[in-house]
Amino acid sequence: MAKKVALLQGNSACALGAIYAGCKFFGGYPITPSTEVAEVMSEELPKVGGKFIQMEDEIGAMASVIGASLAGSKSLTATSGPGVSLKQELIGYACIAEVPCVIINVMRGGPSTGMPTGPGQSDVMQARWGTHGDHAAIAVCPESCQEIFTETVRAFNLAEKYRMPVQVLYDEIVGHMRERIVFPEPGELEIIDRAAPTCSPEEYKPYDAKSDTDVPPLAVFGSEYRFHVTGLNKAADGFPTTKANLVAFEERRQIAKVECPEARADIESNEEYLTEDAEVVIFAYGSSARSARYAVNKMRAEGIKAGLFRPITIWPFPEKRVAELGKQVNSMVVVEMNLGQMIFEVERIVKNDCKLAGVFRVDGDPINPGEIMAKVKEVL
Amino acid sequence: MAERYEIRFSGAGGQGLITAGIILAEAASIIEGRHAVQSQSYGPEARGGASKSEVIIGEDPIDYPKATIVDACLAMTQEAADKYAVGIKPGGLLLVDTDFVKNPPKGDYTIYDIPIMRTAKLEVGREIVANVIALGAMIALTDVVKRESGLQAVLAKVPEAFIELNKKAYNLGFEKVKELMAG
Questions:
Q1: Domains of chain A, start order
Q2: Which among B2, B25, B39 is the nearest to A176, CB-wise?
Q3: What is the ipTM of this complex?
């Protein structure tokens, strides 16, 4: 049987991806340009026995998502940069309490209210460091409606597997445009559910790590497995502690569970286009990568050995591969709809191995291929 | 490099031009199995009269998702024509509503006109189908999808009771432009 296809907006694709992943709870507060995610979730969740709540504000929405997830439901919220700012306190809570959840950020400009209806990519550092304190981050950045679907599914898998909040960032352009989606059949994409405890309720400790990179199983809160949840540094049993060795172990483990080599290899996902023999590589993500691919094709036709490196997982940063490319190429050009954010990560990795330049834009218009080509020709 | 064909539908908000763009994108990407991206005016740009919907169609995946220089443009109102009939490719096409665009902006493109709203009102009897007439007309003008694909996409969108009405509207739009081009 032919697969089901439809022409869908990116935001609709996101919601349907969440349903495919087994999401059963959405708590949100409407904000442009993400509102359609909430709209579609409010239609779809009741059909699968899920619950939709429009909360009183952004932080309330994040609280509802954490509560629902602890109670055993895969949980989602969708917002834009200003909403993510308001959620930060509880994103940190979800990090330290190790609560799986997915946060969609349909990016517009900023700071503050900025330009609500314009596209932006200026929240990529917010996704990494928005909440205070040392913590790991996982964020993915799809470039098309189909990829919004599949990356939303992957975001749920990563949240469940690593027991933490995962952010999906895409900009207004991809959120609102329509493209064909080919729906995966049930079972076609891998679906990961959080590990459940195998011990008895009496023996259960919510942070009983077996190693310094371990992700302990999470019981359903409210079941016979009783445990304490707090934003304080805590011991294996979930109760607060100030014991130096326990605090250091937990702080380090919660980062290492994402940044150890095995986890990085599992979480990282990049697309490379014509990079094998490239003398100049364009580093671009989200909708800017589409402009970059167009530019690469045009430049190849002119005989310029250009290639595209597109991180789909932006956090953790793809350090190893960017380092290799830095040694291979003459120049790297970072293209982003902000005034220079990821370029500093690229610089941190490539150091002086190649020339580095950026193409930045924050006026509400997408970066067009002509701007990218002009910069490449300037640096080559 | 991937060939891309860019079409813009423009007019007043509420004339159904965003829907016309969506239907064209469905005809190309769902029915014909090619690639299409549809986008539309949004936010402050969408308020205050003129509105637009753009469709990019290609044989390969569409990379840059916004219009660069459009191959063909429809303008249903003078305001839309003044605002959006810029950036038409040299040798491109502009279709306007005869009664509502008295002064189509001149440029290095061919201008055609048919009375879209009048046809909807007098020949179909429902102004609401003006966007379907416009869609039929733009498909006839550009050949960007097959006539049958456009019709099939229209009919997939409308309730049973309105099938004949929309079929008539689509065919009228298509044929009026074909006559004009033959003449």
A1: 5-182 (3.40.50.970), 201-265 (no CATH), 271-379 (3.40.50.920)
A2: B39
A3: 0.94
